[in-house]
Amino acid sequence: MAMRSIALVVMLVAACADSRFGAYLIVEGDDKIAFDRLEFYFGDYEPGFDVPTSPKNPTPVQGLQFLNTRIYDPHDSWVSSTPGSPQREFTYYVPTGGSNDQLVHSGPSYVMVVAYNKDKAIGIAEEIGFKLSDNEVDRYIIHLLPFAAEEVEMWGFGQPDCIKWTHQRATDPSGMTSVVAVVRDHDRDCDGYSDAEDCNRLIYCDFGTQVGCGGAAPCIATTPCAIGECAQIGPPGSGTTQSCSATTCLFDGACSTSCDPTKPIDERLQCAFSQVNHPEVYIPLDEMEQLCTVPYSFDLQIANALCASPRIIYPLGGREPDGFVVTVAPGTAGDSCHFELFPPMFGDPTFHDNDDHVLVAVDPSAPGVFTRTTFLFGIHPGSHDPNACPSGISIQNTSGSSAAICN
Ligand SMILES: [Ca+2]
Ligand SMILES: [Ca+2]
User: Fold this and answer.
1) 139 C-alpha vs ligand 1 centroid, how far in Å?
2) CA 258, 260, 264, 265: dihedral to nearest 10 degrees?
3) pLDDT in tens for each of the 407 residues of the chain?
4) pTM here?
5) Of the bound ligands, which one is closest to the alpha carbon of residue 187?
6) Which residues are within 8 A (CB) of 218 and not within 5 positions of it... i.e. 6 or more apart?
7) Could you write out the three-class secondary structure of 278-326?
8) What separation in Å is there between the alpha carbon of 26 and the centre of ligand 2?
9) From ligand 1's centre to the CA of 157, what distance in Å?
């Protein structure tokens, strides 16, 4: 409602537009594209590594990507009052205050626009980093590109209100594309399962085919405390539930009431890590505070178990919140695992102390109720002594009782 009324206001005050502060988004079809409808996808523009999968792109997105939360209004589409006469220009006025509170107060800095003619998508464009100032009039001319030539997907359970666009942007390295997605606030992969009830918040679940519906992200089962495999029970909508089948032992702290069980699993595990005594690994750095080698690798002894079929449980997907990626493989000694640490950017492997943790699961040394055992350690920046690089790794609190063994 709010956004449509704003579009009307623009036309009424066009003659005195300079007196109204805010952003004017001027969508141009130039001589190629005439449209009778526009859909605006406003968002916040932040780099991210978590553009979700979607029905036509079911594998995780690689490379440079940006995930926007759509600042959504059910009426944020503009429809021509004269559809028989499609037009080549439209000005969308975004004020800095007034009736459109939700959009304005969310501080949009990004918008993607899709142009239609007779319900066929014919153009797409975006404006990155536009400004919303209460003492300036800022105009942005947004040139539409032919839709058919672009790699775009619009999807969403119930209604296709999410969009991703793979495109070579001016800010991308030469010859490379990036992916920008604008998605729902509490349903990041737009599959109809809200984040709180979604086994994989960034993997689109098609309940009909069961593609993307289970197993990729772990869950926490509480009796006994264990990591498990999640499954969606029932189609999206009211009454949908999840199941969690325990597969891997977990230390009890992860299931204590002091770690909010309603939070996402990554937050629950982070809370649990602070409650359990575990080894701390200090990674040596060079004078630039960067990893001595890329990747940086080290072996670590696993308490009370062999490093058989190791698997990273946390960080989820192997990527720490700060972007560093951890991989694991069996070490040279049977009771040690081999870890490799990859920076988010190879050109800048600066390693900050972000309280990173690694939770590894290995096969147990003796058969138990569950098939896996876990081992936890922290990783931190260590010595800056150039002579210590790259071999000067140090491990403290090796006696930390972090290994969880199911009884
Ligand atoms: Ca979802
Ligand atoms: Ca999902």
Assistant:
1) 36
2) 30
3) 334 334 434 443 443 444 588 889 999 999 999 999 999 998 876 655 579 999 999 988 888 888 887 876 655 789 999 989 999 999 998 877 665 555 656 667 889 999 999 999 999 999 998 888 878 889 999 999 999 999 999 999 999 999 999 999 988 889 899 999 999 988 989 999 998 888 888 999 999 998 888 766 688 888 778 888 888 888 998 778 888 888 888 877 788 888 888 888 888 899 988 888 889 999 999 988 899 999 999 999 887 778 989 999 899 889 998 899 999 999 998 889 999 999 998 888 899 888 899 999 888 766 655 567 888 899 999 988 777 787 788 988 876 655 555 55
4) 0.68
5) 1
6) 227, 228, 229, 230, 248, 265, 313, 316
7) CCEEEECECCCCEECCCCEEEEEECCCCCCCCCEEEECHHHECCCCCEE
8) 36
9) 9
* CB contact set of 11 (below 8 Å; sequence gap of 6+): none
Task: Tell me which ligand sits closest to the C-alpha of residue 194.
Answer: 1
Question: From the CA of 147, how far away is ligand 2's center (Å)?
Answer: 27
Going from the Cα of 202 to the center of ligand 2, the distance in angstroms, rounded, reads 6
Given the structure tokens 């009431």, which residue do they identify? 257
Length of the chain: 407
Amino acid at 240: T
Please tell me the number of the ligand nearest to residue 195's CA.
1
Ligand 2 centroid – CA 240 distance (Å): 13
Distance 213 CA to ligand 2 centre (A): 7
Span from the CA of 204 to the centroid of ligand 2 (angstroms): 4
CA of 53, nearest ligand number: 2
> Which of the ligands is closest to the CA of residue 204?
2
Q: Residue 149: which of 173, 171, 168 has the closest Cα? A: 168
